[in-house]
Specification:
By secondary structure, the protein is of the alpha/beta class. It contains 14 helices and 14 strands. Strand 8 (239-245) and strand 9 (251-258) form a beta hairpin. The protein is flat and about 55 Å long.
């Protein structure tokens, strides 16, 4: 297993990666929404604009990562009762700087010749993004070539005095000197899932046996206001479980409020729902065919709502049935929810389409969980034991498990 991590360099993962998109803290939230939609892990790196008098490295200009939860939460707090147009206007004038919390340790700029094992160690310590210089003619695809031709491990630009190739440094072509790309933890896990054979037997081992289940997660009761989730949201993964607590204290997950779920939704509609609905209503939606009605300003009615409701007298705000479709991240209506009490009817199929939380079992294999995360472009998987929520598996837990038997080598 060590050979996989030590004989590969991070430059191997940059093949085909697009150039880095820069989002500045002075950009508007409307610009940020577009960048996030095209970014990995439902977030985008925010930088300070470089001073005109000097050129600072991107790592020195890095402020933090912005995600949909921060934008939707900002809109919900600052325009809770406003209409769609008001929130859209706020998106055009509010800047990223007003929303983002500084998290400078989550990004690091590294050399393309950095060993994969070293990059993984950085991610285990909290780095979420790697900024890597793109190479045009990278000679050292892996350590085996470096050892073969130089007699020892060489990083970019290094040479060996006793090597026949000492006049040919492992480097990149000049035309690519100013081109960079961003590597996320998803990119790393996607690379590792293509090497499952080299990782054996870890991929087929259960996540519980590997200690990959984190019990340090946030949750909110389904009957609580959805906006409470914003205050409880951890940074990594950026997710809060919406639960129903049984009399014995066990928690049953009914959905989650997370950056991943909000990734490509309608931020304006999601902000209204976050400010005005309970957590259960937010993640499940109400039954469009009669389970309840929620007063919604006429501007909130989306074209996707099937039932326009009864006509009302002029000047009277109509009642429209809230549809999970209007938020933009659910596909189907959900049965069994009482809007007034946010209680759920057991024994019915409540989880449908994208509204269902992504879950696995304690005895699920690591490979299965990796496949779940990658296939859904998610940042986490909730772990259940029967109907009880017991933990969460995110990228950090996956990377820790994968490298469990890997020992960093200095050779």
């Amino acid at each position: 297993m060590n050979s996989l991590f030590i004989h590969h360099v991070i430059g191997d993962l940059t093949v085909g990666k697009p150039d880095l998109m820069e989002l500045y803290e002075s950009d508007t939230l409307e610009v940020a929404a577009r960048v996030i939609a095209a970014s990995p892990e439902a977030s985008a790196a925010v930088l300070r604009r470089p001073p005109e008098s000097s050129i600072l490295a991107r790592e020195d200009r890095f402020v933090g990562l912005i995600n949909p939860m921060e934008i939707v939460g900002f809109l919900a707090r600052n325009c809770p009762d406003g209409n769609h147009t008001q929130r859209e206007s706020l998106m055009k004038v509010a800047t990223v700087k007003e929303v983002i919390d500084s998290d400078q340790g989550s990004l690091k700029s590294i050399d393309p010749g950095t060993r994969l094992i070293d990059a993984l160690e950085m991610m285990k310590q909290g780095v979420k993004r790697l900024i890597v210089r793109k190479s045009g003619s990278w000679y050292g695809f892996s350590k085996r070539f470096s050892v073969l031709y130089n007699g020892k491990w060489l990083k970019t630009g290094a040479t060996s005095s006793n090597s026949i190739t000492s006049t040919t440094p492992i480097s990149f072509a000049a035309p690519y000197v100013d081109k960079f790309c961003s590597l996320s933890r998803e990119d790393v896990v996607r690379f590792l899932i293509g090497c499952l054979g080299a990782l054996a037997p870890i991929p087929l081992t259960s996540i519980s046996s590997l200690g990959a289940i984190s019990t340090n997660f946030a949750s909110v009761e389904g009957s609580s206001p959805a906006l409470e989730a914003i205050a409880k949201t951890p940074l990594d993964p950026c997710a809060v479980a919406v639960v129903e607590t049984a009399p014995d204290g066990t928690k049953k997950i009914i959905g989650d409020i997370s950056a991943y779920k909000l990734w490509k939704c309608d931020y304006s509609s999601a902000a209204w729902a976050l400010a005005n609905l309970s957590a259960a209503q937010f993640v499940m939606g109400s039954d469009e065919h009669g389970s309840g009605e929620i007063p919604v300003p006429v501007q909130e009615i989306m074209s996707s709502v099937d039932d326009p409701g009864p006509s009302v007298a002029p000047g009277v705000s109509p009642k429209k049935r809230f549809s999970s479709r209007s938020i933009g991240f659910f596909n189907n209506r959900v049965d069994g929810i009482s809007v007034g009490t946010a209680s759920l009817t057991r024994g019915r199929n409540m989880y449908r389409g994208r509204s269902a939380p992504l879950t696995c079992k304690c005895d699920s294999s690591l490979a299965a969980v990796m496949a779940q995360v990658l296939s859904h472009r998610a940042t986490h998987v909730w772990v259940t034991d029967g109907d009880t929520l017991v933990g969460i598996v995110g990228y950090v837990e996956i990377i820790n498990a994968v490298t469990k038997s890997a020992v960093p080598s200095t050779s």
